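Researcher: I'd like a candidate sequence for this fold, 156 residues long. If you have to choose between options at a position, lean toward the conservative one.
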């Protein structure tokens, strides 16, 4: 049994690490992405955010959008819509086409809002979305909160 890690102990700036479990994402009843080659960001008080290589996604799933946002650590993110089975989730994923040097391994990898999908899995465990609509963390039994994102946690 693996001892769960406390998100309060995650570093700032965030750590980037390889994931050993298979990551799988389901939208409109279809597996749209699957990989054994994911990365995750571990940031203080956040559950991990998982980043998959673009090759993990089925062809035609990712649609570039004009929206951007800025992370003080990783740089400028560009958003993507995901479409499958007649369903489209606009701005439900993001990527860093030109991240800061410390996060160069994230280049073009794709993160997905867990709560906008039918299901997201880390290994065999179905993840729960991080509270709130802004953050993209996935909660599993491998990590212990409290997690940033709920009302009142904006300034943690």
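Model: Candidate sequence:
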């Amino acid at each position: 049994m693996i001892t769960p890690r406390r998100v309060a102990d995650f570093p700032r700036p965030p750590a980037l690490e390889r994931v050993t479990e298979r990551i799988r994402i389901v939208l409109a009843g279809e597996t749209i992405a699957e990989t054994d080659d994911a990365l995750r960001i571990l940031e203080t008080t956040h559950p991990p955010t998982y980043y998959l290589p673009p090759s993990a996604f089925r062809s035609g799933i990712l649609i570039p959008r004009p929206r951007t946002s800025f992370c003080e650590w990783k740089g400028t993110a560009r958003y993507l819509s995901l479409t499958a089975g007649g369903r489209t989730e606009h701005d439900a994923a993001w990527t860093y086409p030109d991240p800061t040097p410390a996060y160069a391994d994230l280049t073009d990898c794709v993160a997905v809002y867990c709560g906008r999908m039918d299901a997201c899995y880390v290994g065999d465990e179905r993840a729960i979305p991080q509270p709130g609509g802004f953050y993209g963390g996935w909660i599993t039994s491998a990590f212990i909160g409290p997690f940033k994102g709920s009302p009142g946690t904006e300034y943690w």
